[in-house]
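Course assignment 3, question 2. Fill in each field.
Student: A.L.
Task: Predict the tertiary structure for the chain below.
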Amino acid sequence: MTEPATCSELNQVLDAIQGMQVIIQAIDKKLDIHIATTTERFNLMDEKLKRLEDKIDAVEAKLEQRINAVEAKLEQRINAVEAKLEQRINSIEIQLGQRIDTVESTLQDIAKRQAGTDARLWGFLVTLLVATLGLLAKLLLFDLPSS
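Answer field:
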C-alpha cells in the first residue's frame, strides 16, 4: 500500500504547485499580451484594408468618370460623322436627281429629233415612191412609140 506523506513532502508538493501557478500566471500574461498584439495587428490590418478599399473605390470612380467622358466624346463624334454622312448622302441624292433629269431631258430631245428624222425619211421615201410610180406611169402610159 501507500505510505503516508510527511509534512515536508506536502510542503514540497505545495511549493511545486505554487511554482506552477506562477508559471501559469506568467504564461497567462504572455498570452494576454499576445492576444492584445494580435488584436492590434488585426485592427491595423482592418484599417489598412479599409484604406485600400477606399483607394480602390476612388480609382473606380475616376475610371468610371473617364469612361463616361470617353463615351460622351465618342457619342459626339459618331453623331458628327452621322450628320456629315447624311449631308453627303442628301447632296449625292440631289446631284443624282439633277443628272437623271438631265439624262431624261436629253433622251426626250433625242426622241423628238428621231421622230423628226423619221418623218423626213418617210417623207423622202414616199416622195421617191410617188416619183418612181409617176415615172413608171409616164413610161407605160405616155411614152408609147407611135406606129
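Instructor remarks: The CA atoms of residues 39 and 45 lie 10 Å apart. The chain is about 95% helix and 0% strand.
Grade: pending
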